[in-house]
Amino acid sequence: MIKIRTLLPVLAALGAVGAPALAQQPRATDLRTLLQQTEQVRAEAAAKFDTRRKEFEAAPDGQKAALTAKAEQQRKELDTSSQKLADTYAANEVRINNLNSQLRDKATKLGLSEVFGLARQAANDDSTILQQSLISTQFPPAAGQPTRDEWLRQFSSARVTPTAAELERVWIEMLSAR
Amino acid sequence: MIKIRTLLPVLAALCAAAPAFAQPGDAAGRYAQAMADADSLERYNSQLQEQLKSQQAEIASIERQLTEIETTNREVQPLMQQMVDTLAQIRSARRAVPARGTHGPRAGPEGHDGARRRHGLREVPAGFSMPTRSSSNTAGRCLPTRAGSVSGADARTVEFVQIGRVSLLYRTIDGSETGYYDSTKKAWVPDASYKEAVETAIRVARRDGALELLTVPVSAPQEVRS
Description:
Chain A is an all-alpha fold. Chain A has helices at residues 4-23, 31-58, 61-109, 112-132, 148-157, 164-177.
């Protein structure tokens, strides 16, 4: 299966073509506007290309070779830099996969995988009960804190391993909901 | 749902942006193309660097979890023991709840506050008893009824009906008097205007009648608790 993460460099490259110019425009609310904006980006890029051609043609003949060399040197340096970044990205991906495997293995070895799974399942079930409860509004969360059902939902869908404090809170919320 | 077919013109326009200067030709074209490529590579590198930062954060997070999971393992054992002990306490507390139909003050270890929680009401009259509702969800939706007596100077045998969490009503056995429990005054208040609602509620609770909308006295919320 192709992971989204694997496609990120491709998306970054695609985004690099027109994203900055698109980002400066108001957000498109329909496909027709999006198409117009995309066409506008293309027109702006073509205009910039023409401007640079004219700048080059207007330069003294003695400087033209230097201008071209400088531009090609800049492109080469950025290309090298790009390659290095892409290599680092790929290496990081391998490292993340290895670390995730280590974490899963460690949780299984310690017998915590099942505990975490059950806690997440119970949190998800109880978040539904609390969401449907008719008295939830009588027990508001502290200022700036998520509601109890929101917290349980976040816990159940979190990717990080739970801490003992979080497991204890799930237990307390379950007792409160009964 | 947006179909891929609908997005094709947009994708076509995006892809068309690059070939516009893909054939530089002369020296001016080569220069302009090199500059355009440099711009594009600069933006690409900038985005890649953002992704690398995100990767570094993820690596740091997993490394932290690898350390914390050992702490969690140490702390989970006593926590689970505490959970098991608490479960035993909850079971013994539930066994102490009087059976349905028991009159008089509750003798459970949780006292009056426990009764209020069980019934899901904001305020429960002293000595009042209804079938236990263990879940917050069902307590808010149940419609139990039972016979009992209204205490006070003029004690009389009545039939109670609890409307979820919002109202507690009664009707005397001969049907001559109806009323409700006023949680503000902490007293039973006779009120003939709810006679029809109470009779309908009792019929619905006994499953003698179809479900109907009921007009019942409701205390306005006065405070919230956290």
